[in-house]
Design a protein that fits this description.
The structure holds two protein chains of two kinds.
Chain A lengths: L3 E4 L2 E4 L5 E7 L5 E8 L3 E10 L2 E4 L6 E3 L9 E3 L8 E8 L9 E2 L3 E5 L1
Parallel strand pairs in A: 2-11
Antiparallel strand pairs in A: 1-3, 3-8, 4-5, 4-9, 5-6, 7-8, 9-10, 9-11
Chain B lengths: L2 E3 L4 E5 L4 E3 L2 E3 L5 E8 L6 E7 L6 E3 L2 E6 L4 E6 L8 E9 L7 E2 L3 E6 L1
Classes of the chains: A mainly beta, B mainly beta.
Chain lengths: 114, 115
């Protein structure tokens, strides 16, 4: 099993550009989520999904869109990148039916917006 | 609202010293889960432990031990005989009982272990 796979690992954008951070998991996990990590801030939840077709906002959703058309994939879209979105992004998943089971994290995407 | 406080921003120790990382949490839930994750310099997040609010037994795993005290809302993490490989950022996190595995993280404590 590959676990949780995030692509790309690094990305540089110009202000106003759009892009999609990809996240895929092969563990048949129902729950998937996106976090951003900023220096001195820990990890903060952006969006999450409890299953295909269901998404919800986390603590810092502004500027980001998500969709969940399949169980395996949970892409994060930046429609118009801003310097404030410079961060490290982590995708995570966990099993269905086991409340608060541990999260499996991807290796992260380091995004710089100039 | 849930909150996790890791007051220690950075800790420096010399190898073989014992070190305790503090975690204090706030929640209105009576049932909740607490976690510790490790982030080594390579950047990935490594799960260390999950503890539910009804289980106040301390846990030991090798050189790692955790002290959960509901009375003080603390879930502290101790590394005995620290090693250079323990150098990392450590995050404490909290999840409500009925949540969908979404976590509220503390800001992390950077541990530097020098030889």
């Amino acid at each position: 099993n590959a676990g949780v796979t995030q692509t790309p690992k690094f990305q540089v954008l110009k202000t106003g550009q759009s892009m999609t951070l990809q996240c895929a998991q092969d563990m048949n996990h129902e729950y998937m989520s996106w976090y951003r990590q900023d220096p001195g801030m820990g990890l903060r939840l952006i969006h999450y999904s409890v299953g295909a077709g269901i998404t919800d906002q986390g603590e810092v959703p502004n500027g980001y869109n998500v969709s969940r058309s399949t169980t395996e994939d949970f892409p994060l879209r930046l429609l118009s990148a801003a310097p404030s979105q410079t961060s490290v992004y982590f995708c995570a998943s966990s099993v269905r039916g086991q409340t608060n089971e541990k999260l499996f994290f991807g290796s992260g995407t380091q995004l710089s917006v100039l | 609202a849930q909150k996790v406080t890791q007051a220690q921003t950075e800790i420096s120790v010399v190898e073989k010293e014992d070190v305790t990382l503090d975690c204090v949490y706030e929640t209105r839930d009576t049932t909740y889960y607490l976690f510790w994750y490790k982030q080594p310099p390579s950047g990935e997040l490594v799960f260390l432990i999950r503890r539910n609010s009804f289980d106040e037994q301390n846990e030991i795993s090798g050189r790692y031990s955790w002290n959960f005290q509901k009375s003080t809302s603390s879930f502290n993490f101790t590394i005995t005989a620290s090693q250079v490989v323990d150098s990392a950022v450590y995050f404490c996190a909290l999840s409500e009982a009925e949540g969908y595995s979404t976590l509220t993280f503390g800001k992390g404590t950077m541990l530097l272990v020098s030889p």
